[in-house]
Amino acid sequence: LSPGAKMGCFTFIKVMMILFNLAIFLSGGTLLGVGIWVKVDGESFLNIFGALSSSILQVVNVSYLLIVIGAILLVIGFLGCYGAQKESKCLLMMFFSVVLIIFIAEVAAAVVALVFTGLAETLLTGLVTPLLKEKYGEDATFTHIWNVTMTEVHCCGLNNYTDFNNSYFYETHGSYPSQCCDMRDPCNSTLAAETNVEGCFKQILHEIKTNAGVAGGVAAGIAALEIAAMAVSMYLYCRLDEK
């Protein structure tokens, strides 16, 4: 390519880099703002998005999740946009490094999710089952979360109805939660065994596997964008030496 064509290509990629990262920066700011809103005024969020959001908020703690993701996107967007605008090698390298770290973390998380599913189930069983025995039926918030989860996902406990053996709920009511018997009461051990409602971990895992194609496509798209962003930032970084 002629020097003019190279310069035109560099300018085009630089502008695309600025616009792309400006969009990321604005998205990060939006998520950060929503996260702060949910944290400060959760009642308004619940009124807009309904009762189910209450369970989601308490299980996932959406406010902190949105704040963290928003802050990360703000940093990435700023480094990419400002670094390209100012043609700063330092900022472009920082942008490349941050995106690379996120990419490696995502790959590691995917590998762990695929290879150590059994380990995750074992760890969750060790952590969640004692809580089900102690708090279900005794703690109103905890009970509400699990009732919504079991009703919506059509599951019972983490593994199955035996998670409620010797639990506070069973000792108090003399039965298992109705979700363990397809919403039939009283839910005794015989009916629960005949109904054989699967545990929530297995049901959620089944849903994930059922939608694995969609999840994989989204993950592949995000990975492709990250690789493209790293390639563009490195191209601009190297071209700056030639200017």
UniProtKB/TrEMBL annotation:
SUPFAM superfamilies: Tetraspanin (SSF48652)
Transmembrane segments: 12-38, 58-79, 91-116, 214-238
One CC-aspect GO term: lysosomal membrane
Keyword Cytoplasm recorded: no
Source superkingdom: Eukaryota
The keyword Membrane is annotated on this UniProt entry: yes
Keywords for this protein: Glycoprotein, Lysosome, Membrane, Transmembrane, Transmembrane helix
Localisation: Lysosome membrane; Membrane
Membrane topology: Multi-pass membrane protein
Binding partners and assembly: Interacts with SLC19A2. Interacts with NTRK1/TRKA.
Family of the protein in this entry: Belongs to the tetraspanin (TM4SF) family.
Role according to the record: Structural component of specialized membrane microdomains known as tetraspanin-enriched microdomains (TERMs), which act as platforms for receptor clustering and signaling. Participates thereby in diverse biological functions such as cell signal transduction, adhesion, migration and protein trafficking. Regulates neuronal differentiation in response to NGF by facilitating NGF-mediated activation of NTRK1/TRKA receptor tyrosine kinase and subsequent downstream signaling pathways. Plays a role in the inhibition of TNFalpha-induced apoptosis.
Identification of the protein by name: Tetraspanin
Organism annotation: Drymodes brunneopygia
